[in-house]
Amino acid sequence: MSALILCSMLIYGIVMIVVPHGFTAVSNGRINGEIEKLTSELNNTDFKTASEIISDFCAKNFGMAAMLAVGADSFSFGDFDNIRGEDKAVSTSVVLAFPDCEEAVFLTVISTGSSADELNGVFIGMIPFVLGAILLVSAVSAWLCSRAIVTPVLKISRVSKRMAKLDMTWHCDVDRGDELGVLADSLNTLSIKLGEAMEELEDTNKRLREEIKKVNAAEKQRRDFFAAASHELKTPITVLKGQIESMILEIGRYKDVKSVLPETLVEIEKTERLVKEILSVSKLEINGLGEKNEKIDVNECLREVIEALTPLAFEKDIEIVFDTDRPTVYIEGNTALFRKALHNILSNAVFHSPMGSNVKAELIGEKLTVVNTGVTLPEEEIHDLFTPFYRVEKSRSKDTGGSGLGLYLVETILRLHGLSFDISNGDNCVIFTVLLNQN
């Protein structure tokens, strides 16, 4: 508004100065031209006719009068006396020669001159009205400007502040086709893309946190495993050391070395099996599935494992049931390791089932279930079954409860193959389920 007022006043001031001066120059030029035209016309006529021409000239040109002087006589045309009395009157004299007049004739033309002062007065008198009009136009223009430009800019400014705070829950409602509209559309597009990028980043961070949690859990499990392995190895080594020292010192029944050595050999074999299982777990943790990735026939692996466990099942009068006519199912992975997992699952089922019961292996589509009847698990301990060296049998005897690494190996192998699994109680039975749809 201030800029409009300043510019308007400046323009009005320039007009006040330039217009009167220009008008004066034009007016004087017009008067001189009329006088030259009159003089030229009079030079080609006689005195009588000249009087008529001068009269017509004064009648046509308001504010101009003329006087012809011939010797002592003079003839005036127009309102000569009144015009001559004006302060701004300007006179021009020329000498004429007429054919019918022997003496020289003087023509004097008087005009009131330009009205520059009057124009200045008019301009000055109009200043209050012009100033009022300028103020009104400037105020309306400033209001329209604020509605058309400033308001959208303020909206965009508020949006940019929300963007700076990473708040993308907004939409810039500026429906225009000019640069501000393009800017608003660009901000809306930027908001959508930034929102998508932030969502992707949040998802990535979430997955990263989950991966870190898994890594930390795996690291803790690894530390717990080796701590438990150290504890499990300590007992048989201590027993072996005591037996050997007793044999060397010939203490009590250990004097008969030959009768005691078979017991020592059995303990060594148990320790050897434990060490092999620990090494197997360590190898899996380090190498995973290794470079061997092949197509595994699940049906064939089941048949081989059942055939290997038949003698153990026969000793306990347990029947292992498996329908060999089911469609073949294939997965990708390491055949030897997958067979080891199946062997541990089925051997656990046979070992922990009572005499005369049965174990059923069933493969339907991509779902493998192993059911051993006549036994159930304590519900509160099911989630601990896959913990290294955990045994439901509280005496922790390897004669009745195994090493406690069988199911841990199963979990590790199935996890490396991308297979999900579950163990639960049924109606007087334990059900181990493996889903063969690899993730």
Please explain how this structure is put together.
- The protein has helices at 2-42, 47-60, 80-84, 116-125, 127-164, 179-249, 257-287, 298-315, 335-352, 398-401, 406-416, and strands at 64-70, 73-77, 90-96, 105-111, 294-297, 319-322, 330-333, 358-364, 367-373, 420-426, 429-435.
- The relative contact order is 0.06.
- Strand 8 and strand 9 (367-373) form a beta hairpin.
- The longest helix is centred in the middle third of the chain and has 71 residues, at 179-249.
- The protein has a 5-stranded mixed β-sheet, covered by helices on one side. The chain has a 4-stranded antiparallel β-sheet with strand order 2-1-4-3. Strands 5-7 form a two-stranded antiparallel sheet.
- It is 59% helix and 15% strand.
- The protein is of the alpha+beta class and 439 residues long.
Identify the overall geometry.
Answer: rod-shaped
Strand order, largest beta sheet: 6-8-9-11-10
End-to-end C-alpha gap = 70 Å
Report on the biggest sheet. Answer: 5 strands, mixed
Assembly context of the chains:
single chain
- Average of pLDDT: 80
